[in-house]
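Troubleshooting log. The previous structure file for this entry was overwritten by mistake, so regenerating from the original sequence record. Sequence copied from the archived sheet and checked twice against the printout by T.R.
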Amino acid sequence: MAKKIAFFNHKGGVSKTTNVFHFGWMLAEQGYKVLLVDADPQCNLTGLILSSGSFDRFEQHYLDRPDCNLKSALSPVFDGALSPLTAAPNLEIESRDGLYLLPGHLALSEYEITLTLAHELSGSVHALKNVPGAAAHLLDITADAVGADYVLIDLNPSLSSINQNLFLSSDGFIIPNSPDYFSQMAIHSLARVLPMWSSWLDRAVGHPALQDASYTLSARKPKFLGTVVQNFRLRGGDPTKGFQDQINRLFRVIDETLMPALSQSELAFSLERYSEVLGERSSGFCLGLVPDFNSLVTTSHIGSTPVFALSDEQIGSVGSVLSQNREKRGDFHDIYEKAVRQVVELLG
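Regenerated output below.
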């Protein structure tokens, strides 16, 4: 069965979607089959992949294939049609073999109320018993249909029921961050919220009303895979002093506040396991420090191609500028190659 990885932070602007796309492409480059799932109603991942610099292409998808999205795939359960879930229609990304997309939908947020009621585990849960386990089942059968090894889930920046449900259905999670004070605040918040989600799962899997559901919840809990820090500038090959100070503060919050909370709630591997994979001195359980893409980010979006996979023709520059961008492209490739290798090893 495919391993599901959630990319989650309820702080926006931390390059969550960018990292889902880059991690997924790199996994596919290494020979794995990967299903990317856009679970954010803003549909940024879908737009990044489908638009290729033109919003018309993005819009045309929903006109041509109105049922090819996460919301439509879940509708048999959430809209009460009583028909069984089937593998969701998805798109094979032509420019990268082994990479597939399950598009998002703006109206996915309409299911928040239904899922919230089902999560309350009150008397109403009998009528909604199939709702809590539906999304996990859908992603599993969709991954099986394309032979995927990994499912990468792009969650929206909120503490919504949909995020809670998909987060808890994953095998592991990555927390993208930016080197700023608000990311530190978000980590403090996650240290309180994620244990509460874990406690909810403990109650839900044992709830009598959910025992005979068609789509049951798994008691297995997702494990923290690490953080990726992005959106900072370099000087002399290292983060500038101001950014480095913020990175150090962020890592201290992760080490001293987040990790103890995750470990106590069974949302983390052993410290020995992290040391084996990430290294003894891996502050902040960091998978990668990703500096600003600068002008390459626009080229990446126009070409619907990760920065590390841009061709010379896509980069478009010449002479010394092209040489510099080639070097940057290689650096980003090394960063994501190492991060993906560590994630694969942590998940076993």
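The radius of gyration is 20 Å. Archived copy saved in two places this time.
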